[in-house]
Prior knowledge:
The chain is an alpha+beta fold.
Amino acid sequence: MKLLATKDMSAAELAQILSLKTITVRHHLNMLKLLGMIREASEQRGKVGRPIVRYHATQKPISVEFPRRHYEIISNILLQGLIRNLGPQKTKTTLWTMGHEFGSNLARELTSKHGVERWDMRMLKKYFVELHLDGMGAVPEIVEVTGQSVRYRIHNCVLSELAREHPDLVCGGFDDGLLDGLLKSTIPRAQAKQLRCVGRGDGFCEYVLYTVRPE
Length: 215
């Protein structure tokens, strides 16, 4: 699923990476497709044999329990309530403040959990992007890392449903606040910039954390 969240792949390509038989992979792909967890992304027909089908993760919230729980509904109701009572601008400010507090708490948690004495970009890459975001199910991908910056992508935004409906509030509010709170508590001089956003129509979210902004 992590592989299919980052790019389109065929059963044969997956089988080679996973060291499994193609027929085994194809069986699992069929089951995942029935569950709605993946979709056929493209089909390539050759002169002979069956067409090559490539698959991609749907990135839709799938419930595996019964009865199904719809947590995204209450999240949307709460957000709509904030907008009605505070207005869009105050809601954005409130969400930024909440995100900032969450990011600060996360920084303290990661510092304590991993015994970090002094944060740098490579530690942010390892403990925040590769371990924390992966554990959250965000399917992160490191694009570039230097001593002054970390550029990464998220192929499964955990707030994608709300972000698509309210990108300015969720991405420009809560998400921006979270990264600012995280950085202020780890590398105070560092800044964050979002380069791509699922909520604004991109295929994935992309960020850069930097002390010296990359060109």
